Amino acid sequence: MRFREKDGACRKASTYDWLSFSGTEACGEYCDPRQEIRLDNGIFRGIVVDVSRQELEPVIAECELYSLRRHREEELMRDDATRFADLVTISGTWKIDAASTREISRDLIGIFYEDINYAGDGGIYAELIQNRDFEHSYYEVDYIDFAQNPIPWSPKHGWELIGEGTEFELDTNRPIHKNSPHHAVLTTHRPGAALVNRGFGGIALTGGIVHYFSLFSRSGDGKASRVRIRLAEKGRELCSMEIDVTTADWEKREFKLIPKTGATDAQLEIIPLNAGVVELDFISLFPSDTYKGRRNGMRADLVEALIELKPKFMRFPGGCIVHGNKCYDMYHWKNTVGPLESRKPLPNRWGYHQSFGLGFYEFFLLCEDIGCKPLPILHCGVSCQFTITQTAVPLQEMDEVIAEYLDLIEFANGDITTQWGAKRVEAGHPAPFNLTMIGVGNEELISDDFEIRFTMIMQAIKIRYPEIEVVGTAGPGIDWIDYREGWKVADKLGFEYLDIHYYAKPGWFIHNQDFYDRMPRNRKTKIYVGEYASHRPDRAGCGESALTEALHLTALERNADIVRMSSYAPLFGKEGFCQWNPNLIYFSNASVCRTPGYYVQKLFSVNCGDRYCFNQLNLDDGNREAHKRIAGSAVMDSETGELILKLANLLPRECKMQVRIDGAEIVPQKAPLTLLTVSPDQLQVAPQEIMQAVGPDFEFRLPPCTLAVMRLKTTLSHILSK
Length: 722
Known about the structure:
Structural class: alpha+beta
Shape: globular
Distance between the termini: 51 Å
Strand content: 25-35%
């Protein structure tokens, strides 16, 4: 289906075109073709099309099949006790042929960072002051029922003047940098007031350690002023110091503050001590115990949680945030590098602000710290799928978009003789970041506008950097027309990876374990499952979602010859600040909570392999629905010579499993068996390890609602040499 826009060009229509189409956006006979239709169950607005009965019958059949599938996908584990009431004991045989294998991807499990749920500022980025640069601004999110209502931010957001005798205003006269035009002006007539910042829901401080405080200051009236800097919690002073402001030009000041005791709900207070005018900007407070002690660094506890996952890659910075609201405020990575005061902050698609203290340089460093490949994603010249109407960068301006990609590759990999490589060296990293892949776009409507611009970008990358692998996109879900259109573009252009997304109910993961088994194996373009998660109706990150994701990951391992990468989404959620649930890791200002889903991802990532062993799992009971709730995967790790077995049991009954391994010598031994046992509603759990007697033929008992992982030492050299 196509419709004609104002410029006369035709483009493909998708789901949201007819939902959002308006007469102001089109012309002629194609203006808003929807009609109101009265049916038995209400009044509907849509497109009326005359079709024959013969044409309609396949549609009716497809709708009936769709309805059946959706009904099955509504199944929840809370009903399994009734659904499988007749199951008393479960036993089965798992036959593994270690000599019959195929190569699979070692890069299967990665992570996807998107600045949602205050993941960056207020999250992994360790800055403790909110709106340190006075640059928050109002932002109207142009989503279709997809984000929370925007908050009317202002440059004063996060700051409050408490007390009397001082006026707090903002000015743009002679800014530190053009990208940070606003600064604070405190005009004091008599001392007694304080400018207060509570950070992101209170400031968490560690007693006895250094906190780096910095700001830019200047005198606004040519006279010297004295200011007290104070950290306090509920009126109790934790530490303080006094500084003099004397210069007429901006001066960067840096000091060390050491709180006497720890705090979880502290605030920063800036207190003028005499009459006068003080101008302030870029007011920052950083703990010294960031990861690796970096001054502009990350929260160590959150970085360590990522390191534990051992992800093979990290996709960043999004997600829908790469598009911005429309083409005029898309995410530009060049605005996120360089001196902090020169970076250009941007409102976030998710309803808050990005200071870009966490910019692309810091993302590359984070990937290096974690030990994973970087996978940056940039916009491709068209707006987000979920904006009211798709907008596109004019073709005559696409050179600037293409330059963002080419310059980013140069920034990551170029040497000091190149323009952007020199900027990386200047930032403090002489060695290249070894970028090998780059993502072009995220979830766009696969329109003609998109395909033209995607093709231009991809061709430019391949001409300049043929070794760089390109990751394309296939819309927001596998049931969307964009998924099919995305594959058409992939088959036509033959780029390396297609990024597909789906958020589904637990029942979908149970009843679609063969989704990738049915796919062709000979496509040049491989699959990257860039965003997926199991969503219960209550959107809880619980045992049920984790176990159905474990079931799904066994299918991904089985198909890791074509599904080369995957990443759960989203990664982070700050307690009390979430726009989206569930998330893999929840955190507060002072704590980190690893969800059951986190441990599922960890068990698969830490226990990855590079060859898949063909296997067959049979249950003695003939209950087909029970069979769907037990799944296994067997892989080999050629580096260690180990056979790694993973088995997921979603049933509310223990399963007695007889394991038989052919094609490899399994010496009788005691092997570590890791069990993640979690009830469907459980929100927190950690794996437990026991020792299991194993051999070429052994029995073990798999508890109800459990993911089990074991590593077996074996002689595999004759197999791995093939």
